[in-house]
Design brief:
The chain has 102 residues and is an alpha+beta fold. Strands 1-2-3-5-4 form a five-stranded mixed β-sheet, with helices on one face. The relative contact order is 0.19.
Length: 102
């Protein structure tokens, strides 16, 4: 599974995302860690962006940003042949393919 985590991190880095290890919702950016089903990719907004989004008229643009990040990560990983599963909170699980579990 470590190899799958490394490949997901590498793909995200190559696509221009800054990626951090582990999941810490206090740290902004994309975070990648191992889960039983595959690789969890989570995104946390910075405090500055959260404050900016809250000040915008017409609702919380943070939800739109979360959807955009989820779509970009999902598209990237599926284009590389990995099945993905979105979660209601915006996280993505890159599922283990046959032969990737080792």
């Amino acid at each position: 599974m470590d190899e799958l985590v490394a490949r997901v991190r590498h793909a995200l880095n190559q696509a221009g995302f800054e990626v951090f290890g582990g999941i810490d919702r206090r740290m902004p950016g994309l975070q990648v860690s191992e889960t039983p089903a595959g690789v969890l990719v989570a995104w946390a907004m910075s405090d500055g962006f959260t404050a900016l989004a809250a000040d915008q008229p017409g609702g919380d643009c943070g939800d739109g940003m979360r959807v955009a990040v989820q779509a970009a990560v999902s598209c990237l990983m599926t284009s590389l042949g990995y099945p993905v599963m979105g979660r209601p909170n915006g996280d993505i699980i890159v599922l283990v393919k046959d032969g990737d579990a080792g």
